[in-house]
Amino acid sequence: MLSNNEIKNKHSPLLVVVMGVSGCGKSTLALEIANHFDITCLDADSFHSEEAIKQMSAGIPLTDEQRAPWIDLICQQLTHFQLLNKSCVLAYSGLKQQHRQLIFGSYNRSVGILLEAAQALIAQRMANRGEHFMSPKLLSSQIASMEPINTNNNKNSIENVELLRLSAATSIDNSLLKSIDFIGGRIPQVIS
């Protein structure tokens, strides 16, 4: 028999954070996951200021201080969705551990999906897409800035979230199937 906390958690909204460096396919996968489960999808890039976009377009990485208001805006939106009892998928680079802690902490329940691939593959993808503001010059900087994700089961851990690692080299359909299996019954069903 389920305890009251287990029942409450089963019906609490879930945050799914799809992470990886620019060009790995996180926005595409996040949208596919959101469509499959019929939940909200957010792209963290849409929260950047015009100044930040111009800077990154010029190939200049953001500092932690410049990222702070961006992270704050994302967390405000996520907290709002949590209060509305809405599950959400967020496409977000997840480069810095302290920022991931804030993002994951916006919901009572969250899981992460990390897309990884060789730098050459991601560089090729970035070169082939013309509609994105992120300069391909920033790929090396993003890879260097990606702090390891703590996946131990220590309850005192900064990032005590379940994590699925996927190869960004596989098809979006394959990644979606693995993501659906990973997320499984964690998304609460809407009862009419």
Give a verbal description of the structure.
With 192 residues, the protein is an alpha/beta fold. The chain has one domain (13-186): 3-Layer(aba) Sandwich (Rossmann fold), CATH 3.40.50.300. The protein has eight helices and five strands, in the order αβαβααβαβααβα. A five-stranded parallel sheet has the order 2-3-1-4-5, with helices on both faces. It is globular and about 45 Å long.
Structure, briefly:
With about 190 residues, this protein is of the alpha/beta class. Helix content is about 45%, strand content about 15%.
Largest sheet: 5 strands, parallel
- Please state the structural category: alpha/beta
Q: What name is given to the CATH topology?
A: Rossmann fold
Compressed to H and E, one letter per element, the order equals HEHEHHEHEHHEH
- CATH class, please? Alpha Beta
Distance between the termini: 25 Å
Helix content: 40-55%
The CATH fourth-level homologous superfamily:
P-loop containing nucleotide triphosphate hydrolases
How many domain regions? 1
Q: Note the beta-strand portion.
A: 5-15%
DSSP strand count: 5
- The strand order across the widest sheet is 2-3-1-4-5
Radius of gyration equals: 17 Å
The count of helical stretches stands at 8
**Overall 3D shape:** globular
Averaged pLDDT = 81
Please identify, by name, the CATH architecture.
3-Layer(aba) Sandwich
